Amino acid sequence: MMRLKILAFTTMVLSAALQFEPARADGTLTVYCSVQEEWCQLMVNEFQKATGITTSMTRKSSGETYAQVKAEAANPKGDIWWGGTGDPHLQAAEEGLTEAYESPMLAKLHPWALEQHKTAQGRTVGIYLGALGFGYNTDLLQQKNLPAPACWADLIKPEYKGEIQVANPNSSGTAYTFVATLVQLWGEDEAFKYLKTLNDSVNQYTKSGAAPAQAAARGETLIGIAFQHDVVTPTITSNAPIKNVSPCEGTGFEIGSMSIIKGAPNLDNAKKWYDWALTPDAQKLAAMANSYQNPSNMEAPIPDQAPKMSEIKLIKYDFAKYGSSTERKRLLGRWDKEIGAK
Questions:
Q1: What is the b/e burial string over 90-109, where b = at least 16 CB atoms within 10 angstroms of the residue's CB?
Q2: Global pTM value
Q3: Cβ pair 218, 180 in contact under 8 A
Q4: Mean pLDDT per segment of 10 residues, for the chain of length 342 residues?
Q5: Rounded to whole angstroms, what are the CA distances from 292 to 31, 61, 90, 169?
């Protein structure tokens, strides 16, 4: 009799374990994050507190994350791709790598964030806005007795040879935005002529788009081409001697984006993250992580430290064209052939 009771009890425990297994699966989420590590981790921590959903995170640049999502398309590992420049998100949307979603939070967003959603047929949405530019180390500039650069055209002057860092556009959405910006400013042939000349002044093509600004802040390079909010950050976190520049000719900008991955193993939780990430409370976390973009929720405050978009000469950036799969592949291929191979 005792043996039968033990057997019955064991069967009951195993049955309960099997019943709760789906609940544990439903309580997880995998985030692919393409902003700075500190912001990624803060978002994950706060989402877990808010929802109780166990969340894992992988941090990679925009181009790297796009490549990972594409490589995993037949067997998706991630649930949501949060952050990074919008162009690769748009390419992923066009290629059917991401899932359309109509969040109830859409009504709270700025028009530019909604336009990103519309362009992608609902497969991505804008979460922040940031302008491209560059920063220079004021101490190094004085030591080298060089003039302060104010325009894109200044960066190809002989005095800055070997003094500039920019990311590789294959891995970095920031650097792809730079290439696409120049093409829209001057036309493609003139832009690539400029990039070839600039190549002589570049001491390193980094993997991450924020790295050139960080290097300039540390005095490892004189000039770093980056989004302006990434130039601002080290002035606040470490009082670095780096000056933010909005190029005189005008400049492009990013619509940082968020996308649910097609075939997400935890789709319901991906939607929960999506809705939560568009709330003012979630978007306030950026400044707490020393990231100073303009948030997409109209009720979320713009950090005082954020570059003033109204004071920056912005081009009419064609996200639909330069976020398309064909155009991105073509421009990156030309960059590889004419710049990267040199």
A1: bbbbbbebbbebebebeebb
A2: 0.88
A3: no
A4: 38 36 61 97 98 97 96 98 96 98 98 97 98 98 98 98 97 96 98 98 96 97 98 96 98 97 98 98 97 97 95 96 95 97 76
A5: 21, 18, 23, 22
User: Would you tell me the crossing angle of helices 62-71 and 86-94 to the nearest 10 degrees?
Assistant: 20
Residue 80: beta bridge partners? 31, 260
- Decide if 308 contacts 314 (C-beta within 8 A): no
Length of the chain: 342
At the topology level, CATH places domain 130-252+327-340 in D-Maltodextrin-Binding Protein; domain 2 (3.40.190)
CATH code at 29-129+254-308: 3.40.190.10
Pull the structure tokens for residue 151: 């325009």
Rounded CA gap, 198 and 146, in Å?
Answer: 17
Cross-strand pairs, 247: none
Distance between CA 111 and CA 125 in Å, rounded?
Answer: 11
| Alpha helix positions (H), the chain | 2-26, 37-51, 62-71, 86-94, 111-119, 138-143, 173-186, 188-199, 211-218, 228-237, 267-277, 280-283, 285-288, 319-322, 325-335
CATH 3.40.190.10 in the chain, residues? 29-129+254-308, 130-252+327-340
Whose structure tokens read 């590992």? 77
